[in-house]
Design goal:
The chain has helices at about 1-15, 20-45, 50-85, 90-120, 125-155, 160-180, 185-195, 205-215. It is mainly alpha-helical.
Length: about 220
């Protein structure tokens, strides 16, 4: 308990002195840890050492996008929500949840796919195809996690700690999105649900087919 209290006090001081840097460091560390967990626990198909370049790319996304952009987004969201609702309430929570789900959610997923694709040497055509085939399924899958979490976050957590709650939840979300970036999400959901818009049921592209189409 003493260790947790000391960490919390240190975090609060760092957040007050350098909010953007603190949020970026926390985001980078959690996203790197999330991708590493995906490789070691979820995928479990990498012989030997994990793909450290991929871990570094995920950490760079957390540091360069989730920390600063996410921090700015939630600060703006709090200010904007005060314009239509004073004090805590259903209208304020619903408005923040709607904007977060419809605006920031899709933008952050698309940014992840582009960032990881470029960092891993994918062609622009391959990245575009990934966005066309897996962006919508990933957003829907991601929303199943974020909508209930953010509903509780916006309703129960003080505004100054919204980003901290999101950063902690990002450890789980980074696992989900890192897996989604490296999986055929549309095919997985079609197999689980017996049909999903955006492609032919049961069709899975091989790596050879992807290379052939990119050539």
């Amino acid at each position: 308990m003493a260790g947790w209290r000391a960490w919390w006090v240190g975090y609060e001081k760092a957040l007050a002195r350098a909010p953007v840097l603190t949020q970026s460091l926390v985001g980078g560390g959690l996203w790197a840890a999330g991708d590493l967990a995906v490789q070691e626990v979820v995928e479990d198909n990498h012989p030997g050492a994990p793909d450290l370049r991929r871990v570094a790319l995920a950490g760079a996304y957390g540091f360069g996008f989730v920390g600063p952009v996410g921090g700015a987004w939630y600060a703006w969201l709090e200010r904007a929500s005060s314009a239509w609702s004073r004090g805590p309430g259903l209208a304020k929570t619903a408005g923040k949840l709607t904007l977060d789900t419809v605006v920031f959610g899709p933008f952050s997923v698309a940014a992840l796919f582009v960032h990881m694709g470029l960092g891993e040497g994918e062609t622009p055509r391959a990245i575009r195809r990934k966005l066309e085939e897996d962006l919508l399924p990933t957003i829907l899958l991601d929303s199943a996690f974020w909508v209930p979490f953010q509903c509780a976050n916006f309703a129960l957590v003080p505004a100054r700690h919204h980003l901290l709650a999101v950063n902690l939840a990002c450890l789980v979300d980074s696992c989900l999105l890192s897996w989604a970036k490296h999986a055929d999400v549309g095919r997985v959901l079609r197999g689980a649900w017996g049909g999903f818009p955006g492609g032919e049921p049961g069709h899975s592209k091989t790596r050879g087919e992807e290379v052939g189409r990119d050539a």
